Amino acid sequence: MAPSADASRDSDAPDPVEAAAPDDTIREPEDVAPDTADGETGEARRVDAAGRTESFPHSDGPRSPVAALVYNPIKVDADELRAAVEAQAKEHGWGDPLFYETTVDDLGDDVTRQALAEGVDVVLVAGGDGTVRAVSEAMAGSDVPLTIVPSGTGNLLARNLRLPLTDADAMVATAFDGDRLRIDVGFAEISRADGERDEHAFVVMGGMGLDAAMIANTSGDLKKKVGWVAYVDGAARSLVGAKPFSVMYEVSGHKTHRTHAQSVLFANCGSLPAGLELIPEASVTDGEFDVVVVQPKGPFGWMLVWRRVAWDNSVLRKFRAGRRALRLRTKDNAVRYTRGTKLAIAVSDAQHVQLDGDEFGEATGVLARVEPGALVLTIPHGHSIVPPAPAD
């Protein structure tokens, strides 16, 4: 009697019925396509929701570091910039970088928090001053380095740090191989007339009054066409009806002041476009911010303001002889300077507020504070943020 099929089959052999499931087809090894194709290494890879593949982290050691690029697609050549980041990541043995675009509704802070949640090792930002501000707000206190790739209209933080403004590749390279610099970050809690409050960061400067109204009155289309020069148009629109407003302010360590002013500025940086120096001695690493109260009296007062910014600060202070001349000059109160770690501003009539060139509506009060060394930046090796010594 012939043995049964069950008896003749080895006990370790698979059951044909189970092997054929779920489509009743038994496959031989040669029927299954290999998991690699010509030219591929066979390295295990995973696929994201969009169908793109990326390497699995190595199981026998720490994962490769990863960079994230947050960029404003209107301000940069996205393809060129992404390619530069990918090339640097590959050259330095990093993993595939992550890319995030800003939108009208997300200036960069939300996507930056997403990148940080992914555990990235460095974030690069490319866009205007508003994009840099939003990304810095999300990164403050994280200890993850931020690389600024200058683009857009002002690049005020990059200018104040004396970073390369026209060499994007040089700045991209610092993300993977550069020095580190800690800078201060300011935060401003804005109080509205209806009692609402919201807080935002700034890395260059904020202001209440005429400077903010000037920004609010600047045409967005004109700014896109001619850059920061568009603010001249905004200034002209604002100066026509500019009136001093009653303000009460107090800087930490100083007494409370009540005055009539055109603007109250709180600054982490002191340089403006076109080489103008609003606050020559401002520092992003001193743990304080500088407060500037602009309070001209009439047309002659505005001439004193312009002389202080455009001539005294921007020209004379660069020379020893000029600084000696300034010490002999009679001081005026058209522009008043002070310094501290906190600033409280209160006004009776709501005034415009701006942070790093972004309009933040009208407010009845601002409480500003500084967080020393809260943001880590990458800079070129050996780069100094200190201006050269004044000439003789």
Automatic annotation (TrEMBL):
Residues 31-41 have a biased composition (Acidic residues). InterPro entries: ATP-NAD_kinase_N, Diacylglycerol_kinase_cat_dom, Lipid_Phosphate_FormReg, NAD/diacylglycerol_kinase_sf, YegS/DAGK_C. GO terms for cellular component: plasma membrane. Residues 14-23 have a biased composition (Low complexity). Residues 42-61 have a biased composition (Basic and acidic residues). The keyword Zinc does not apply. Keywords: ATP-binding, Kinase, Lipid biosynthesis, Lipid metabolism, Nucleotide-binding, Phospholipid biosynthesis, Phospholipid metabolism, Transferase. Residues 1-65 are annotated as: Disordered. Pfam families: DAGK_cat, YegS_C. Its cofactor is Mg(2+). Residues 62-191 form the DAGKc domain. GO terms for molecular function: ATP binding; kinase activity. It comes from the Bacteria. GO terms for biological process: phospholipid biosynthetic process. Belongs to the diacylglycerol/lipid kinase family. PANTHER family: LIPID KINASE YEGS, SPHINGOSINE KINASE. This is Diacylglycerol kinase family enzyme. It comes from Microbacterium telephonicum. The lineage of its organism: Bacteria, Bacillati, Actinomycetota, Actinomycetes, Micrococcales.
